[in-house]
Design a protein that fits this description.
By secondary structure, the chain is mostly helical. It is built from 7 helices and no strands. The longest helix has 26 residues. The protein is globular and about 50 Å long.
Length: 153
């Protein structure tokens, strides 16, 4: 059952990626967002090589479009760190978290959600990944609740 939802999600993410590639081009910041979203899905499925390839491509686009020291570029660096943590490459992941933190500090205000996520990853990456899972589940439950209210049986 769960695998069926992943396949459906993958299909939708791929469709969004294709639309963005057509509308904005292969190497556009907006396209990189779709690459990152699809990579996150692959990470959750355990398809680490696919996830890493997409994140590397998204990182290359963001570095070219926004620069190496832009906070949005650092988000991809952080996502690579999360991927490496999930793969069990703890030391490598911490290097990526540290790089993302150094880029974001001084560019984002204290308390900014992206900065807090990276700081949390340096302290306890598993907690951040568990929260991500909880937030995804909570978001889906919220959507279903609103749909049930709008379209009662």
């Amino acid at each position: 059952m769960k695998q069926g939802r992943f396949r459906k999600s993958e299909k939708l993410f791929r469709k969004a990626l294709t639309i963005r590639q057509i509308e904005f081009g292969e190497r556009n910041f907006v396209t990189a967002i779709s690459l990152s979203s699809l990579a996150k899905l692959y990470r959750k499925q355990g398809q680490f090589e696919k996830a890493e390839q997409l994140l590397q491509k998204a990182l290359d686009i963001r570095q070219t479009e926004l620069g190496q020291y832009h906070p949005d570029t650092a988000l991809i660096v952080n996502e690579l760190g999360e991927l490496y943590w999930t793969k069990g490459l703890k030391e490598k992941s911490k290097d990526f978290f540290q790089q993302a933190l150094e880029t974001m500090q001084g560019r984002l205000n204290t308390g900014h959600p992206s900065l807090e996520r990276v700081q949390n990853n340096l302290v306890n990456p598993q907690q951040t990944l568990d929260q991500e899972k909880y937030q995804s589940t909570s978001a889906l439950q919220s959507i279903f609740t609103r749909l049930r209210r709008r379209y009662p049986r």
